[in-house]
Structures
1.
Amino acid sequence: MDTTVIPFRGLRYNPKKVGNIVDVIAPPYDVIKPDEQRELEQRHPANIIRLILSQPNKNDNDKDNQYTRAAQLLNQWIDDSILVRDSEPTYYIYDQSFHAPDGRDYSRRALIANVKLEPFENRVIFPHEKTHAGPKIDRLNLMRTCHANLSPIFLLYQDSDGEIEEIMHLFTQENMPDVDCPEVFGSTHRIWTLKHLQSNEKIKSLFKTKPLLIADGHHRYETALTFRQEMEQKGLGTDFNGYDYMMMNLVRMESSGLAVLAIHRLLSNLSAVQIENAMKYIYEDFDVHQMDNLSSLMVKLEELKGKSSVFGLYTSDKKYKLLIPTDNTERLDVSIVQDTIINGLFKIENLAEHISYTAYTEDAINHVNESSGRVAILMNPTPVEQVLDVAMAGSIMPQKSTYFYPKMATGLILNLLNQ
């Protein structure tokens, strides 16, 4: 294995031009709602939203469209020194402090670096979820015009001794952050530039034998692989070229700051017959325990976490059930929910029509209470070790198996590929 994790010359907002950095950053493109987009656009004329979610209009054509306009704006901001590229390659340390939906406080530390792209069959970088064509086409079109990574994807690495985090810790103890944003988009945001040659060489060496697991950003990673192939076909994708690398946010898998939340399943548009049959046959697959209320159900889920597969079920008759599988076969909780409950009991085939997701328990309960034909399946989080085991075994987990909270901010650092 030869994992290549290197420093790079980040492209960053110039505070002398934009003022407060908090006014120009945004959440990741795929979680921004239309009203949030409008608010971010109004917050600052150079907010990163204008690049990552440039809007189409009715007169768009091959030469003038949402993607070409984003590229023109990116180049204009560079020309106007709104965005300035660092003079020397460096690693970046990114800290987020936050209060998670599980009620706990965390501080998550990451290393932002350029990582060499590897096909999945090389077994250096591992996926764990399926991807869909639509998002990849959109991000590929944006990459084709901008030739840049506008935000990092999120990967995990194993480091039982904590050597890489220790290097970062020693540096942040002795140096002030370049960026220190108060809480916004669910967390605080602090950035350091790790300008220390010996430390950087040590980090690069330590990563060489470490496999990397994609936590969030599967679509953008596969898009980067496709784009590199396109550049190679044009004669531009030679080794050590920017197109061979992608900006990534690397977090230690064993870190106490890694918050992995449960993603509850929300079932909608169910017929009375579907629900009635599911409740009739549920006893064939599960030991079913009636619970008095949500609090007692969640306490029981927490008690059994890591000991047994266990699920909560809430129905529109305001009844709470604790489900423990009678099948002792070792399977992932998300697989049991998908195969045994969603497909088997409720006979759901079209997931897009019937399934949505939330990490917030109260939202799941409110979802059921708002309308008939709804059910909530409450879950424990998938342990990150299980995610790694599945990925390294060459398997793929069901959609929305993991939720690493919170999302990273977009706009703190960009990466130009063609320079």
2.
Amino acid sequence: MSVPVIAIDGPSGSGKGTIARRVAEALGYHLLDSGALYRLTALSARKQGVQFDDEASLAELARALDVRFDSNSDGSERIWLDNEDVTLEIRRESTGEGASMVASIQSVREALLERQRGFEQAPGLVADGRDMGTHVFPSAAVKIFLTASAEERARRRHKQLKDKGIDVSLAALSRDIEDRDRRDTERSVAPLRPAEDARILDSSGLSIEAVTNTVLDWVAEL
């Protein structure tokens, strides 16, 4: 029997990571944070002094990532790279900017593709990213494109970073999100867009619980 996959795509700051974790927990499914893999590639490149225009070296880094995903006792994420806790580092805006750059490189995407598909295991998978429903899991049972206004996404991201002790200005975040949206939607390789059969969910003004319940209701329709 095929393994059910719930694909949740959307722009930066739309809340897809939080929703994916909650849905996976509710269903008892595995979780794939595909964006973390690109962030880890960018972070690894910076730590090793690899330039973002060195496509061959970046692809090699992507293939060789020593990554471990874990959780704290409260259910929050914990991510290890080369046995170093990089949970906070990969969520910094500078790392996100790097991830957006390396994600536009075909050889990097190819290096990470099979690793992402390897997460498809019983009893099921919730995969969040930017091309889960269009490219990585085109046969996903449920495809959701989660979005929100740029202003709302900037406010959410600002609060998230402040809660983690990371100081950043709201204005700078708004500019970064607009720039990242432009790069993600205009890139030639797997651009950010809803799958043709995706359900669009605008989370502006909605609580995390409301969005999670909507997704679970859609899954229950299977």
